[in-house]
Design goal:
Helices cover 73% and strands 0% of the residues. The chain is mainly α. It folds into two domains: 48 residues, Arc Repressor Mutant, subunit A, CATH 1.10.10; 122 residues, Tetracycline Repressor, domain 2.
């Protein structure tokens, strides 16, 4: 059996995404990925011209999974606007997707190409949120503010280290979500 059969392209991309989530773009090294997959690095070049090609395909995969696939699932499972928002938030908070998303956000701080990709992804997410909030609120200013608050809550929740008195983080997060819907 050849390397293509043993180690498909998707495995290299997934290993790269895991390395990105664990250690940032600097951790995405061909030799380290090959070792994590238990193969030689020669198999890498059967799929990718170089490391930059892999990085771009990783970003393509992240975008597809975190926007296209996620929103398609939300729509497929149906429900009203609030159901869809809750489901989208739950799916976006998936441990694997969230770790990759946060790593991409950090990477975007130092790489303009990645920052442009992140902006596109965030704009697509915000457009979807707008479409849902427009079903609940008529005022465009309120729709935009609620979208910003909802998206900021989802992302920012993972950066806060504050205590919440006698309440747990989950309790306060749930209260914040309820406030956004009133």
């Amino acid at each position: 059996m050849g390397a293509e059969t043993r180690t498909p392209r998707s495995k290299w991309i997934e290993a790269g995404l895991q390395a990105l989530a664990d250690g940032g773009p600097g951790a995405v090294r061909i030799e380290a990925l090959a070792k994590s997959l238990g193969v030689t690095k020669g198999g890498f070049y059967g799929f990718f011209a170089d490391r930059n090609t892999l990085l771009q395909e990783m970003l393509d995969t992240w975008e597809r999974e975190s926007v296209d696939d996620l929103l398609a699932r939300v729509e497929r499972e149906g429900g009203d606007a609030e159901d869809k928002m809750a489901r989208a938030g739950t799916l976006a908070s998936d441990e694997r997707l969230l770790a990759i998303d946060l790593a991409v956000r950090d990477w975007a701080r130092r790489d303009r190409v990645v920052a442009d990709r992140l902006r596109r992804v965030d704009n697509r997410r915000m457009d979807y949120l707008r479409s849902l909030f427009r079903g609940l609120y008529a005022d465009e200013g309120e729709v935009e503010a609620r979208c910003m608050l909802a998206f900021s809550l989802l992302i920012g929740n993972h950066f806060l280290a504050a205590d919440h008195g006698t309440r747990t983080r989950e309790e306060v997060y749930a209260l914040a979500v309820r406030l956004l819907r009133t």
